[in-house]
Design goal:
Strand content: under 5%
Structural class: mainly alpha
Distance between the termini: 100 Å
């Protein structure tokens, strides 16, 4: 206990510890002796010097204060410290002038206050409560002086018309709340001060001249206060002022209207904001208005009843901090005494989280000061008295160490120096000469606190990370969390932390409700862990942010992710290297609805009733456009599902290709009858039949995510027949049907698009009719078609027919055309010429052009089509499958198989051309794995070799023409 008798400070001082730097102390002593001899206080100096020497030897800042103003040091040493404090506060309260007149005196008074508290603290005269109380009282007085000065300036300029002595304060209606440690009278030595400024419009409007805009005036006053206290001059500064502990600081002015603030806290206020207001108290301005504001906030701060989700969210404040009960990884060098593991914040959160849960029903727990809160919790039997005493003692010691760290250079730091010499200076101020002993003591202290903290809400869901703490409360990024994010691999850690804090603030629809924010509190650490494991956390986070921000609501999706962690990991992992899927989710978050379907993870080869579902939902639509939208919704979900399966390796290229084709078939089999019904509605009944034929990769069931639809339609109808209403002839009727089908498949509606449709592979191409009579189809392939058109026909497949018998007839016509003899035609020569033409006119776009590169997919597909034309000519069975057609060409088959696998991954991940060289290493490895290579560099080497062999195999498979021409 301090001595209660009044006596000069120099008589009460005791040495804090050893002198860390005798040379530094001696230099100061020489300066002070000269001043003391000149002014006659040498006896006081020598009596105090044993206590001053350790200070001078450790703290350049305090030594500088004593050196610059020896007369002020003398006055402090020769006064009772309580009287010295009273004098400083009194002088501060008498400052009543415009900013220019009070700027220097305020800074000199702050220097006196700093020197007095440091000497009284280090000399064992004041305990922690007295030190923090003195710092807080001066902060109060400085804030009041700053407001008076700014108000005087505004009054002098005619903006403010209320009298200077108004009992409601310098500016009626405007008030400031001291937050955090300032509010609880626990301010630390070099702390900034958190001030929340508000105004009551009904009062302030009366204090301003007519026409003065209130918000603009309030902002000017708030910035003026902050500038006056924060600005550094030759005399130093007063306090760093932080005005951000206000509602949604990124989107609100520095001074907030009270009614608006109350509405914010009632609607989207968070639990960490409730915790912040535990310590709030009116400190400047209209204190009665401030009192009314605090009273109105009590139901928000102290909720009488909390549902289970709210309790979990409060507990999450604690669980975001990383806990190691063993004390592993706790080191004194560089330890953050405030925010690090085992630090001051853990003790504060230990008390505050329980206050938030229990204080609504027990007013005795509503204590602002941490030590008082711990005692109240123990007195009410919520925590053991032994734990309260242990944490209280640790709190006092940690705060003392924090002060000593800050006293070195008056820096707002909470870290013990990593540099041994500077840490030894802190140890000296703490009374310890042996740095190793000091370090061991600090590490044991941190470990004890961390262990106690780990016991709080034990057994619940962990919301920290193995990488470290993940704390997103407050208005600024937590330094420990930024370090954690960097360890996770995020190169832009501050922007990631800022985005997540904004989501916690409810700035996106997914977190606008209390339930959404509570779920996100639990989801955030899992999200970041999953992003870290993705191998490309920055890209993955950017893409996830687009998706998450686009959700119309977030409760269902977040609950799904929390309950299906493997699915969540899969979705987030794909975000890292699949901008196509990420964009799908970003543009149409409803694509994720398919994830809710139990069939999402079912093997792609299993029949899940997709076609029937699409047809049923389209059939329930009221019109043609409704059917188009129904198909698009399910198509979007299934494209996302297949893409996920392909990218994660759940499905190979063959299974994915068939799944994409099955989805296209389902769309065509649903929209074809809908288009026909729409054509009949417009033109009238027509007694004919039509079939839709898929060509290319849709025909061979080898589609990728980027495939378009190559189609043709054929029809059959009695001669001279016309439609019932419009009198359309067959060619017009089926042209209108085909046009509607193309629109149904390719048009972009509110639900997006489906496919690009290409009809140019039909007989006579774009020059001929859009729909072809079956007899004309037969005649064209019998007399006019060139070899390349027969190559196209090898992958033709009837997808839908308005009449099953006609569909079978169309399929038979395709086979007849392929098997019809073509005397005098050198098919091999035609294929070689076609490939040579492509080599000349369609050059590959770099190494990763899997289609056009020599030895690429075109070589394999041309060879396969050539094999099919050979088989057709001699009556052998035909196949649509490229791999089956190449059963006698193993090198070409392997080249096509490998490049088809790569094509699937690239198409699922990207839209358009992409160079994998610039993509994340995790995606490069996925490509290598798909091709059976150990790594990306090996993949490139093996692919180049495989293509070289495939080009030679193509030349062997397709013989040189009769005229000797070769590509």
């Amino acid at each position: 206990m301090p001595d209660l008798k009044s006596k000069p400070l120099f008589q009460s001082l005791a040495p804090a510890g050893p002198v860390a730097s005798p040379a530094a102390a001696e230099r100061l002593h020489e300066t002070l002796v000269e001043a003391a001899d000149a002014d006659g206080w040498r006896e006081t100096l020598e009596a105090a010097w044993p206590a001053l020497a350790p200070v001078a030897g450790a703290s350049p800042y305090l030594a500088g204060l004593m050196r610059r103003r020896p007369a002020h040091l003398r006055r402090l040493l020769e006064m009772d410290p309580a009287e010295g404090l009273a004098r400083i506060l009194r002088d501060t309260d008498t400052l009543d002038a415009e900013p220019d007149a009070v700027r220097a005196p305020l800074r000199v008074l702050k220097a006196d206050l700093h020197l007095l508290t440091a000497l009284a603290d280090l000399g064992g005269v004041w305990d922690l409560d007295q030190v923090t109380d003195a710092l807080s009282k001066f902060a109060d007085a400085a804030c009041r002086a700053a407001l008076r000065a700014v108000a005087a300036e505004q009054r002098a300029r005619g903006r403010l018309i209320s009298p200077p002595g108004d009992p409601r304060g310098p500016i009626p209606g405007l008030f400031g709340l001291a937050m955090g440690k300032h509010g609880a009278n626990e301010l630390n030595y070099s702390s900034d001060i958190d001030i929340s400024l508000f105004f009551e419009p009904r009062l302030m409007v009366l204090a301003l001249r007519e026409g003065e805009e209130m918000q603009e005036f309030a902002n000017r006053v708030g910035k003026g206060i902050a500038t006056l206290l924060t600005e550094r001059t030759a005399d130093g500064y007063v306090f760093r002022v932080d005005l951000r502990l206000r509602p949604d600081p990124s989107s609100t002015p520095p001074v907030v209207a009270g009614p608006m603030a109350l509405a914010y806290y009632e609607s989207v206020g968070q639990n960490w904001e409730r915790a912040a207001f535990i310590k709030a108290r009116p400190v400047l301005g209209d204190l009665r208005a401030g009192g009314r504001f605090i009273k109105a906030l009590r139901p928000f701060i102290w909720r009488r009843s909390l549902d289970y989700a709210a309790v979990l969210d409060i507990q999450a404040i604690k669980r975001q901090i990383h806990v190691h009960k063993t004390g592993e990884g706790l080191y004194a060098a560089g330890a953050n005494l405030k925010l690090g593991r085992g630090g001051i914040r853990e003790i504060e959160f230990y008390a505050q989280t329980q206050q938030l849960i229990l204080g609504g029903r027990d007013p005795e727990l509503r204590r602002q000061r941490t030590l008082e809160a711990l005692k109240a919790l123990a007195d009410a039997d919520h925590i053991p008295h032994s734990v309260a005493e242990e944490l209280s003692a640790a709190y006092v010691e940690l705060r003392g160490l924090e002060h000593r760290v800050q006293m070195l250079d008056d820096e707002q730091t909470h870290r013990l120096p990593e540099d041994a010499e500077r840490r030894a200076a802190v140890a000296a101020l703490a009374g310890q000469a042996d740095l190793a002993v000091f370090d061991a003591h600090v590490e044991a202290l941190l470990a004890r606190v961390n262990a106690r903290y780990g016991e709080l809400f034990e057994g619940g869901e962990e919301l920290d990370s193995t990488y470290g703490s993940l704390v997103f409360t407050g208005v600024e990024n937590d330094p420990e969390t930024l370090e954690t994010l960097r360890r996770m691999g995020f190169s832009e850690a501050p922007s990631v932390a800022t985005a997540i804090r904004s989501w916690h603030h409810g700035r996106i629809p997914a977190t606008r409700t209390a339930r959404g924010r509570e779920l996100f509190t639990r989801l955030a650490p899992r999200l970041l862990e999953a992003l870290a494991r993705s191998g490309a956390p920055d890209e993955a986070f950017r893409r996830f942010a687009v998706f998450f921000s686009g959700l119309a609501a977030g409760v269902q999706v977040q609950a799904l992710f929390l309950n299906q962690p493997k699915l969540f990991e899969m979705v987030v992992g794909v975000m890292a290297f699949a901008p196509r899927l990420a964009r799908t989710l970003g543009r149409q978050p409803a694509a994720l609805d398919g994830v809710l379907d139990a069939r999402f993870l079912v093997d792609l080869s299993d029949d899940t009733g997709l076609t029937e579902q699409i047809q049923r939902e389209a059939g329930e639509s009221e019109d043609f456009e409704g059917a188009m939208n129904a198909v698009r919704r399910l198509h979007r979900e299934q494209m996302f599902r297949i893409g996920i399966h392909a990218l994660t390796g759940r499905a190979g290229a063959e299974a994915a290709g068939r799944a994409y084709a099955a989805l296209a078939d389902a769309a065509m089999r649903t929209l074809s009858p809908a288009a026909l019904t729409e054509t009949v509605r417009l033109g009238g009944d027509f007694p004919g039949a039509v079939a839709v034929i898929a060509l290319g990769k849709a025909g061979s069931r080898e589609m990728t995510a980027g495939s378009d639809l190559d189609l043709m339609t054929v029809y059959e109808a009695p001669a001279e027949t016309v439609s019932a209403i419009k009198g359309w002839t067959a060619d017009v009727f089926y042209a209108r049907f085909t046009q509607r089908l193309i629109a149904a498949l390719s048009a972009h509606t509110a639900e997006g698009g489906l496919y690009e449709v290409d009809m140019r592979l039909r007989p006579t191409g774009s020059k001929g009719p859009v729909s072809v009579r079956l007899s004309a189809f037969d005649a064209y392939y019998a007399r006019e078609a060139e070899t390349w058109e027969f190559m196209v026909l090898t992958r033709a497949r009837v997808v839908w027919g308005s009449d099953p018998a006609f569909a079978r007839k169309a399929a038979a016509a395709i086979e007849t055309a392929l098997r019809r003899p073509r005397p005098g035609v050198d098919v091999a020569a035609d294929v070689r010429k076609m490939r040579a033409l492509m080599d000349r006119e369609r050059r590959p776009h770099g190494f990763w052009d899997l289609k056009l590169s020599p030895g690429g997919q075109v070589d394999a597909e041309f060879a396969a089509q050539y094999r099919q034309l050979q088989a057709a000519a001699i009556g052998e069975p035909l196949t649509l499958s490229t791999m089956e057609a190449l059963h006698d060409d193993p090198v070409l088959a392997e080249a096509w198989r490998v490049q088809q696998r790569l094509a699937h991954l690239l198409a699922a991940a990207f839209e358009g051309r992409v160079d994998p060289e610039g993509e994340p290493s995790v995606f490069q490895l996925r490509l290598a794995e798909a091709a059976g290579a150990p790594d990306f560099e090996t993949l490139k080497t093996e692919l180049a070799d495989l293509r070289a062999r495939a080009r030679k195999a193509f030349e062997r498979a397709v013989p040189v023409g009769r005229d000797g021409e070769s590509p």
